[in-house]
Automatic annotation (TrEMBL):
Coiled coil: none annotated. Residues 224-239 have a biased composition (Low complexity). PROSITE patterns: SHKT. Residues 15-49 form the ShKT domain. This is ShKT domain-containing protein. Residues 219-270 are annotated as: Disordered.
Amino acid sequence: MPVFLSSWTENPKACRDAESACSDWAEKGECNKNPGFMAKSCRLSCRLCTAPEVKASDYAAMQLVLNTSLGQIRIKPLFERAPATAALVLEAAVNGPACRGCVFYRNEAVPPEGSSGPPYGLLQGSLAGLLKVPEHEGGPVFMRRGHVAMIPSTREFFINVMDHESWGGSMTVWGDVADAASMAVVEAALLLPYHDVKHPTFGTVMRMLDKQVPFSPIAVPADGGSSSSSTGSSSNISSGEEEEEGNATWTSLDAASQKRRSRRALDLSE
Protein backbone atom coordinates (compact mmCIF):
# COMPACT_ATOMS: atom_id res chain seq x y z
CA MET A 1 0.00 0.00 0.00
CA PRO A 2 1.49 3.35 -0.99
CA VAL A 3 2.01 6.13 1.52
CA PHE A 4 0.60 9.47 0.43
CA LEU A 5 2.68 12.65 0.30
CA SER A 6 1.58 13.98 3.68
CA SER A 7 -1.23 13.87 6.21
CA TRP A 8 -3.31 16.37 8.11
CA THR A 9 -5.51 16.50 11.21
CA GLU A 10 -9.26 16.32 10.59
CA ASN A 11 -12.48 15.10 12.11
CA PRO A 12 -12.00 11.31 12.35
CA LYS A 13 -15.65 10.79 11.36
CA ALA A 14 -14.78 12.29 7.97
CA CYS A 15 -12.05 9.69 7.40
CA ARG A 16 -13.61 7.58 4.67
CA ASP A 17 -13.43 6.81 0.96
CA ALA A 18 -16.07 8.24 -1.36
CA GLU A 19 -15.57 5.62 -4.09
CA SER A 20 -15.72 1.84 -3.76
CA ALA A 21 -12.69 1.47 -6.06
CA CYS A 22 -10.41 3.60 -3.84
CA SER A 23 -8.47 0.66 -2.45
CA ASP A 24 -7.80 -0.65 -5.98
CA TRP A 25 -6.66 2.77 -7.12
CA ALA A 26 -4.40 3.21 -4.09
CA GLU A 27 -2.72 -0.14 -4.74
CA LYS A 28 -1.95 1.05 -8.27
CA GLY A 29 -0.22 4.16 -6.96
CA GLU A 30 -2.91 6.71 -7.78
CA CYS A 31 -2.45 8.45 -4.40
CA ASN A 32 0.81 9.84 -5.76
CA LYS A 33 -0.05 9.90 -9.47
CA ASN A 34 -3.35 11.75 -9.06
CA PRO A 35 -3.09 13.44 -5.65
CA GLY A 36 -5.82 16.05 -6.10
CA PHE A 37 -8.61 13.61 -6.90
CA MET A 38 -7.42 10.96 -4.46
CA ALA A 39 -7.04 13.39 -1.54
CA LYS A 40 -10.65 14.41 -2.04
CA SER A 41 -12.20 11.02 -2.78
CA CYS A 42 -9.94 8.38 -1.17
CA ARG A 43 -8.56 9.82 2.08
CA LEU A 44 -8.73 6.53 3.94
CA SER A 45 -7.08 4.37 1.26
CA CYS A 46 -4.35 7.00 0.82
CA ARG A 47 -3.65 6.93 4.58
CA LEU A 48 -4.42 10.60 5.01
CA CYS A 49 -6.36 9.87 8.18
CA THR A 50 -7.20 7.18 10.72
CA ALA A 51 -10.75 5.85 10.83
CA PRO A 52 -12.53 5.96 14.20
CA GLU A 53 -13.70 2.89 16.11
CA VAL A 54 -17.28 1.91 15.31
CA LYS A 55 -19.39 0.47 18.14
CA ALA A 56 -22.58 -1.42 17.37
CA SER A 57 -24.16 -0.18 20.60
CA ASP A 58 -24.10 3.39 19.24
CA TYR A 59 -26.46 2.45 16.40
CA ALA A 60 -28.66 -0.26 17.93
CA ALA A 61 -31.76 1.96 17.99
CA MET A 62 -31.57 2.89 14.30
CA GLN A 63 -32.82 1.68 10.95
CA LEU A 64 -31.44 2.44 7.51
CA VAL A 65 -33.29 4.25 4.74
CA LEU A 66 -31.94 4.35 1.19
CA ASN A 67 -33.39 7.38 -0.60
CA THR A 68 -33.66 6.85 -4.36
CA SER A 69 -35.46 8.53 -7.24
CA LEU A 70 -37.83 5.54 -7.19
CA GLY A 71 -38.72 5.95 -3.51
CA GLN A 72 -37.37 4.88 -0.13
CA ILE A 73 -36.01 1.45 0.79
CA ARG A 74 -36.18 0.92 4.55
CA ILE A 75 -33.83 -1.75 5.93
CA LYS A 76 -33.88 -3.27 9.40
CA PRO A 77 -30.28 -3.97 10.51
CA LEU A 78 -29.71 -7.46 11.90
CA PHE A 79 -27.42 -6.67 14.82
CA GLU A 80 -27.97 -10.13 16.26
CA ARG A 81 -26.37 -11.70 13.15
CA ALA A 82 -23.83 -9.15 11.93
CA PRO A 83 -23.31 -6.37 14.48
CA ALA A 84 -20.03 -5.04 13.07
CA THR A 85 -21.30 -4.84 9.49
CA ALA A 86 -24.64 -3.31 10.47
CA ALA A 87 -22.83 -0.72 12.57
CA LEU A 88 -20.46 0.19 9.71
CA VAL A 89 -23.41 0.79 7.39
CA LEU A 90 -25.30 2.93 9.89
CA GLU A 91 -22.15 4.86 10.83
CA ALA A 92 -21.81 5.88 7.18
CA ALA A 93 -25.46 6.93 7.12
CA VAL A 94 -25.04 9.04 10.28
CA ASN A 95 -21.61 10.58 9.76
CA GLY A 96 -20.75 10.22 6.10
CA PRO A 97 -20.98 13.06 3.58
CA ALA A 98 -23.04 12.80 0.40
CA CYS A 99 -21.96 9.48 -1.10
CA ARG A 100 -21.42 9.95 -4.82
CA GLY A 101 -20.33 6.33 -5.11
CA CYS A 102 -23.53 4.92 -3.55
CA VAL A 103 -25.42 3.50 -6.53
CA PHE A 104 -27.45 0.51 -7.63
CA TYR A 105 -25.96 -0.85 -10.84
CA ARG A 106 -27.22 -4.43 -11.30
CA ASN A 107 -30.87 -5.52 -11.53
CA GLU A 108 -31.66 -9.22 -11.73
CA ALA A 109 -35.30 -10.27 -11.99
CA VAL A 110 -36.63 -13.52 -10.52
CA PRO A 111 -35.83 -16.40 -12.92
CA PRO A 112 -38.49 -18.70 -14.38
CA GLU A 113 -39.91 -21.30 -12.01
CA GLY A 114 -37.53 -24.22 -11.60
CA SER A 115 -34.48 -22.20 -12.69
CA SER A 116 -31.70 -20.83 -10.47
CA GLY A 117 -30.78 -18.21 -13.07
CA PRO A 118 -30.02 -16.19 -14.99
CA PRO A 119 -31.48 -13.84 -13.99
CA TYR A 120 -30.55 -14.24 -10.31
CA GLY A 121 -33.21 -12.41 -8.32
CA LEU A 122 -31.36 -9.50 -6.72
CA LEU A 123 -30.70 -5.76 -6.79
CA GLN A 124 -27.02 -4.96 -6.31
CA GLY A 125 -25.23 -1.76 -5.38
CA SER A 126 -22.25 -0.15 -3.70
CA LEU A 127 -21.89 1.33 -0.20
CA ALA A 128 -18.80 3.31 -1.09
CA GLY A 129 -18.84 5.43 2.06
CA LEU A 130 -18.10 2.62 4.53
CA LEU A 131 -15.08 3.31 6.73
CA LYS A 132 -13.63 -0.08 5.81
CA VAL A 133 -14.45 -3.29 4.00
CA PRO A 134 -16.55 -5.39 6.39
CA GLU A 135 -15.19 -8.72 7.55
CA HIS A 136 -17.34 -11.81 7.12
CA GLU A 137 -19.53 -12.53 10.12
CA GLY A 138 -22.71 -14.31 11.12
CA GLY A 139 -22.08 -17.84 9.90
CA PRO A 140 -24.26 -19.85 7.50
CA VAL A 141 -27.85 -18.70 7.02
CA PHE A 142 -30.73 -19.55 4.72
CA MET A 143 -30.82 -16.44 2.56
CA ARG A 144 -34.41 -15.53 1.83
CA ARG A 145 -36.31 -12.85 -0.04
CA GLY A 146 -35.73 -9.49 1.61
CA HIS A 147 -32.35 -10.31 3.12
CA VAL A 148 -29.59 -7.73 2.52
CA ALA A 149 -26.03 -9.07 2.29
CA MET A 150 -22.46 -7.91 1.72
CA ILE A 151 -20.35 -9.55 -0.97
CA PRO A 152 -17.12 -10.86 0.63
CA SER A 153 -14.07 -8.57 0.68
CA THR A 154 -15.94 -5.63 -0.91
CA ARG A 155 -18.18 -2.66 -0.11
CA GLU A 156 -20.76 -4.12 -2.52
CA PHE A 157 -24.13 -5.44 -1.33
CA PHE A 158 -27.33 -6.87 -2.72
CA ILE A 159 -30.99 -7.20 -1.79
CA ASN A 160 -32.61 -10.57 -2.42
CA VAL A 161 -35.92 -10.66 -4.27
CA MET A 162 -36.00 -14.47 -4.00
CA ASP A 163 -34.63 -17.14 -1.67
CA HIS A 164 -30.97 -18.13 -2.18
CA GLU A 165 -30.44 -21.13 0.08
CA SER A 166 -26.97 -22.02 -1.22
CA TRP A 167 -25.45 -18.53 -0.90
CA GLY A 168 -25.74 -18.08 2.85
CA GLY A 169 -22.41 -19.63 3.80
CA SER A 170 -20.22 -17.06 2.07
CA MET A 171 -22.25 -13.86 2.46
CA THR A 172 -22.71 -11.61 5.48
CA VAL A 173 -26.44 -11.10 5.93
CA TRP A 174 -26.69 -7.80 7.81
CA GLY A 175 -30.18 -6.49 7.05
CA ASP A 176 -33.78 -7.22 6.11
CA VAL A 177 -36.13 -5.15 3.95
CA ALA A 178 -38.50 -3.69 6.51
CA ASP A 179 -41.84 -3.47 4.71
CA ALA A 180 -43.81 -4.15 1.54
CA ALA A 181 -43.51 -0.55 0.34
CA SER A 182 -39.72 -0.82 0.44
CA MET A 183 -39.76 -4.11 -1.46
CA ALA A 184 -41.97 -2.48 -4.08
CA VAL A 185 -39.22 0.09 -4.68
CA VAL A 186 -36.67 -2.72 -5.06
CA GLU A 187 -38.93 -4.49 -7.54
CA ALA A 188 -39.44 -1.26 -9.48
CA ALA A 189 -35.67 -1.08 -9.99
CA LEU A 190 -35.77 -4.56 -11.52
CA LEU A 191 -37.98 -3.20 -14.31
CA LEU A 192 -35.49 -0.55 -15.43
CA PRO A 193 -33.64 -0.95 -18.75
CA TYR A 194 -30.49 -3.06 -18.61
CA HIS A 195 -27.87 -4.68 -20.77
CA ASP A 196 -26.13 -8.04 -20.39
CA VAL A 197 -22.49 -8.32 -19.37
CA LYS A 198 -20.72 -11.67 -19.66
CA HIS A 199 -18.10 -12.78 -17.14
CA PRO A 200 -14.78 -13.05 -19.04
CA THR A 201 -13.73 -16.22 -17.21
CA PHE A 202 -16.86 -18.11 -16.15
CA GLY A 203 -19.22 -16.96 -18.89
CA THR A 204 -21.94 -16.02 -16.39
CA VAL A 205 -24.34 -13.41 -17.76
CA MET A 206 -25.47 -10.57 -15.48
CA ARG A 207 -27.84 -7.67 -15.99
CA MET A 208 -26.29 -4.21 -15.62
CA LEU A 209 -28.50 -1.14 -15.43
CA ASP A 210 -28.28 1.12 -18.48
CA LYS A 211 -28.42 4.05 -16.06
CA GLN A 212 -27.22 3.57 -12.49
CA VAL A 213 -29.60 4.55 -9.68
CA PRO A 214 -27.92 6.71 -7.01
CA PHE A 215 -29.11 6.44 -3.43
CA SER A 216 -28.52 8.36 -0.23
CA PRO A 217 -28.18 6.32 3.01
CA ILE A 218 -30.00 7.89 5.97
CA ALA A 219 -30.27 6.61 9.57
CA VAL A 220 -33.70 6.94 11.21
CA PRO A 221 -35.10 5.80 14.58
CA ALA A 222 -35.96 2.10 14.64
CA ASP A 223 -39.40 2.91 16.04
CA GLY A 224 -40.49 4.16 12.64
CA GLY A 225 -39.64 7.83 12.97
CA SER A 226 -38.04 9.79 10.18
CA SER A 227 -34.95 11.90 9.80
CA SER A 228 -35.20 15.51 8.69
CA SER A 229 -32.82 14.66 5.86
CA SER A 230 -34.68 11.55 4.73
CA THR A 231 -37.12 13.31 2.42
CA GLY A 232 -36.57 13.69 -1.27
CA SER A 233 -34.44 11.62 -3.59
CA SER A 234 -30.73 11.19 -4.08
CA SER A 235 -30.84 12.48 -7.62
CA ASN A 236 -28.58 15.37 -6.60
CA ILE A 237 -25.73 13.00 -5.74
CA SER A 238 -23.02 13.00 -8.35
CA SER A 239 -21.45 9.72 -9.38
CA GLY A 240 -18.20 11.51 -10.23
CA GLU A 241 -16.47 11.83 -13.56
CA GLU A 242 -17.59 9.19 -16.00
CA GLU A 243 -16.31 7.65 -19.15
CA GLU A 244 -18.12 5.55 -21.71
CA GLU A 245 -16.96 2.04 -22.51
CA GLY A 246 -19.22 0.10 -24.86
CA ASN A 247 -22.76 0.34 -23.52
CA ALA A 248 -21.71 0.64 -19.87
CA THR A 249 -20.75 3.76 -17.95
CA TRP A 250 -18.05 3.36 -15.31
CA THR A 251 -16.78 5.89 -12.80
CA SER A 252 -13.21 7.21 -13.27
CA LEU A 253 -10.28 6.91 -12.44
CA ASP A 254 -10.00 3.32 -13.60
CA ALA A 255 -12.88 1.73 -15.48
CA ALA A 256 -11.42 -1.72 -14.89
CA SER A 257 -11.71 -1.24 -11.13
CA GLN A 258 -15.43 -0.56 -11.47
CA LYS A 259 -15.87 -3.61 -13.67
CA ARG A 260 -14.18 -5.77 -11.06
CA ARG A 261 -16.59 -4.67 -8.34
CA SER A 262 -19.47 -5.92 -10.49
CA ARG A 263 -17.77 -9.09 -11.60
CA ARG A 264 -16.93 -10.11 -8.03
CA ALA A 265 -20.64 -10.63 -7.55
CA LEU A 266 -20.80 -12.97 -10.51
CA ASP A 267 -18.69 -15.44 -8.57
CA LEU A 268 -21.43 -15.84 -5.97
CA SER A 269 -23.67 -17.36 -8.61
CA GLU A 270 -21.10 -19.87 -9.83
